[in-house]
Amino acid sequence: RYSKPRHQYGRNRHHILYQRRNWNTPFAKQLRLAMTREIPINIHNILHNEVLKDVPKPSEKVLKIAYEEYLAQKTIIDAMNVCELILWLYNAIPDEAFRACMLVQYHFFDSEMGGRF
Question: How does pLDDT run across 10-67, given as a tens digit for each residue?
C-alpha cells in the first residue's frame, strides 16, 4: 500500500483561526469554519511549522459580534482571498493578541509569498 502523494499545489485548507482545540466554543467554532482558504501544502507547512503556531481566541462575546458581522456580509467575505480575509478579521476583532497574530499571517502571505493568496 502506498499513501497518496502530497503535491505542492494539492488541496489544503488553511484555517486562519487555529488551533482547533482552542477554537471550540460555539461562535469560535462557526467563525473558524467560515475562515478557511485553500493554499499550497508547502506554504501551509511553512506557516504552521516556522511562522505561527497558534492564534489566541478572543472572548466569546467578541466572537459573536464578529460572526454576526460575517453573516451580514457573507457573500462578500466568502469571496475574499486570504490576505483580504485576514484584514477583515483584524478589523472585526479588537483583541490585541489576536490582532498581532493576524498581522503575522498577513505579513507572511503578503510579503513573504508575494501576495499570491
Answer: 457 788 877 777 888 999 999 988 998 888 888 888 888 888 888 889 999 999 999 9
By residue count, the chain amounts to 117
Q: What pTM value is reported for the model?
A: 0.84
In the chain, alpha helices (H): 26-34, 41-46, 60-72, 74-78, 82-92, 96-107
Residues whose CB is less than 8 angstroms from the CB of residue 19 and which lie 6 or more positions away in sequence, other chains included: 53, 54, 55
Main-chain dihedrals φ then ψ at residue 112, nearest 5 degrees: -70, -35
Q: How far is CA 57 from CA 31, 35, 98, 113, in A?
A: 11, 14, 7, 26
Neighbours of 12 (CB within 10 A): 17
Residues 6+ apart with CB under 8 A from 106: 83, 86, 87, 90
